[in-house]
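**Paired protein data**
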Amino acid sequence: MKRGPLLLLVALPLLGAATKPELVPDVSAREVEIRYSFTGAQLLLFGAVLYPGGRVPEKPADVVVVLRGPDQPILIREKQKVAGIWMNTDQSRFRSAPSFYSVASSRPLRELVDDRTASIYELGLRNLQLSPGGGALPGRERHFEAGLLDLRTRQGLYAENPHGIEVNNGVLYRAVITIPSQVPVGTYTAETFLIEDGRVLAAATRDVKIGKSGFERYVALVARRHAFFYGLAAVLLSLGLGWAAAAAFRRRG
């Protein structure tokens, strides 16, 4: 008689845990090395959706993946033509902005979630929390936010693909994220969201490290650990190259 209640108490949590689908994500490479010949890369984000009891619903949930780089402060300057000369006329500082952001979804985000949910999870470029420096009028802040998004989109550092995920049989999914050659180094976060009826049912993350290797890594370490000597060496090298170029022109003359 004493075993019955005990077994019932143990079985209830297990039964509740199996009522929601789960995500099993992965990435094609946990580390991306940047060498002198690095021209960019393609990163594959893939995985599976595990439904309770292995039964796929008639209308499977949608999938959204986000690859996000480390946040960093950034200063945006606006140039205008004054008296025929391009000059910096205004600027705005952002305390925190992702160095890289790329989102892919099985359907357009506006069809998957409302503005509030998209803002909470920062799904989509217009929902990024860019943290402006403050003190500026709202109209001016929005102007510089639009400029930042446009600049980094043209650089290939920000991207949004509303049909970038393939879902097979409602279970297996895959998305390809393009990493440009000028991508910043650091630890990136690959986030996967399972969305149904405007709600996020499940989420999972994986880390991706992007770093320099070989001679580039050595130069970066020297520049960070010995900034003075690195700057001095750069100045001396520039002077030496200038002197060599001038000597070569004199000989030709």
